[in-house]
Amino acid sequence: MPVLFLHGVPATAKLWAPILAKLDRSDEVLAPDLPGFAAPPPPGWEPVKESYVNWVIEQLEGLRARAGPVHLVGHDWGCLLALRAASLRPELLRSLAVGNAPIDPHWPLHMLWREWMVPEQGERLADMLADTNPMRNTLTRIGFSQEDADNNAFVYPGNARRILSLYRSAVNIGHEWTADLARIVIPTMFIWGERDLIVPTEIGRRMATRIGAEFTLLDADHFWPYEQPDAALANLTRLWKRTEARPYTILTQPAFGS
Questions:
Q1: How confident is the model at residue 249, as a pLDDT?
Q2: pTM of the model
Q3: Pick the CATH number of 3-105+173-244 from 3.40.309.10, 3.40.50.11690, 3.40.50.1820, 3.30.200.20
Q4: How far is the C-alpha of 228 from the C-alpha of 216, rounded, in Å?
Q5: Which parts of the chain fold into alpha helices (H)?
Q6: What is the 3-state secondary structure (H, E, C) of 117-146?
């Protein structure tokens, strides 16, 4: 069965390189960059959460048509997009593994997110992140290669403003998307860095409880795909083997409207 990996902010698809280097599957595996993060976005692209969700669903539809139901894996914003896609189009998926991003009405926006909400201040901050690249030091400290840290998602031309637009579109995501988590009934695993202080483990546990999903901790901060690729892949492999060993009922129509 195919696999789709979704990265978040401020990563690119290179977030998954340590896991992909160890992954041994004959099925189709995709780890694309989110639109605009490492290449120009499609013409007329509107960088808001709905656009990215629709893009993810298009990737899933293509994989599903070519190779069958998909194992979907998401981290950070990739986690949010994966959860939303799973709640809207469960018939496309075989399993779901996500972590370190909040869909919870009681989660307070982190400091950077709150600053982005302020008109003009948010634009100045986005431009600073693009021009001076302060994220490189944070990313190298937790294990990113120098090249990946230098070329994080904020520095691709125009993408800092796209990220700003994405976050502004999602300020009420906890209230808008939380109830739909109950629609996710496919086998699901939450993988969480236990030292993540931006999105603490308590948030992950609550989300997993809403779905009835497995919750597992890794010895990591926020970026467990880079920090703990071996442990992450072991958990993913366990989930995939468990789900592939079970009969799969093909849904001929989407269970829920998009």
A1: 57
A2: 0.93
A3: 3.40.50.1820
A4: 13
A5: 17-20, 49-67, 77-88, 111-116, 121-132, 135-141, 146-150, 159-169, 173-177, 201-211, 224-227, 229-244
A6: CCCCHHHHHHHHHHHHCCHHHHHHHCCCCH
Residue type at position 220: A
Of 97, 134, 59, 135, the C-alpha closest to 211 is 97
Number of separate helices (H) and strands (E) present in the chain: 12, 6
Residue type, 241: K
The rounded distance, in Å, linking the Cα atoms of 55 and 44 is: 13
Residue 188's DSSP bridge partners are 96
Structure tokens at 235: 């958990």
User: Can you give the pLDDT at residue 141?
Assistant: 85
Low-confidence ranges of the chain (pLDDT < 50): 251-258
Break the chain into its structural domains and give their ranges. Answer: 3-105+173-244
